[in-house]
Structure formats: structure tokens, C-alpha cells
Amino acid sequence: MHCRVDPHSLVPPSQQLVAAVLDAIACGELQPSDKLPSVRGLAATALVNPNTVTKAYRDLEHLGVAEGRNGSGVFVTAAGPAVARSARLAETFDALQRALDLALRAGHPPELVRQLLEQRLDAAPAAGKDSL
Predict the structure, then answer these.
(1) Are residues 75 and 99 in the same domain?
(2) What is the pTM of this model?
(3) Backbone angle region of 49, left / alpha / beta, with phi > 0 → left and psi within -120 to 50 → alpha
(4) What is the pLDDT of residues 51-74, one digit of tens each?
(5) How far is 68 from 57, CA to CA, in rounded Å?
């Protein structure tokens, strides 16, 4: 799992890590019972403080996608993939709604917005993740 935190983002680093783990679980990169990277390992990879990773892991546990096991680490739960897909889908719909509202408020004709969206979707590979 590859996690990179954007230090210039308005989104807090711990939330960026949560999003990255949710994406990895939702797309199947991480499966139920898979162990997440160690706190120190992920902190070194993402160039963040270990406390930031600890907060992200607590948030993931609260969402029900991960569970900590004393002395063993943090693991993806059986419900993790369904919860992660649901959370990411809700966030995607929210982002699309905000983008649509912005485009219409800016005076862009609905047909142009529809055409641009269709062009983008047509150009995306089946999985969509790498090009979007």
C-alpha cells in the first residue's frame, strides 16, 4: 500500500491517510484480515509523525474497517471492504454534487457539463482509478 500525504492540502494528514487506506480496501488492494503497515513504517513512508498514523488508525477502527490486535498490529475487518466502498462512494457523490453545483452556478450550460463528463468517462480505463 502506497500512501503519500500532501503537506499543502487543506485536508489534515490523518484524514488523507484514512482516505488512502479506504481506497486500498475499497479497490481490493487490502483484503479482510490483511495487516496494515506498522505505525512507524507508515509514518516513515508518508513522512508524517507516528501520532498522525495512530490517529488515522483509530479513525479507521471507529469506521469499522480496521481492528487493532494487542501486540499484533492493525488488521482489515471482514466488513472492511463493504464499509470502505460505501464510505468512498458517498464521498464521491458529494464531490460530484459540489462540482456540478459549482459548474451550474458559474453559468456553464448543463449540456456542456454533461458532454465534458461523458468525454472524461469515455477516456477512462475500465477500472478508472489510474486516469481519474
Answers:
(1) no
(2) 0.81
(3) beta
(4) 999 999 999 999 999 999 999 999
(5) 8
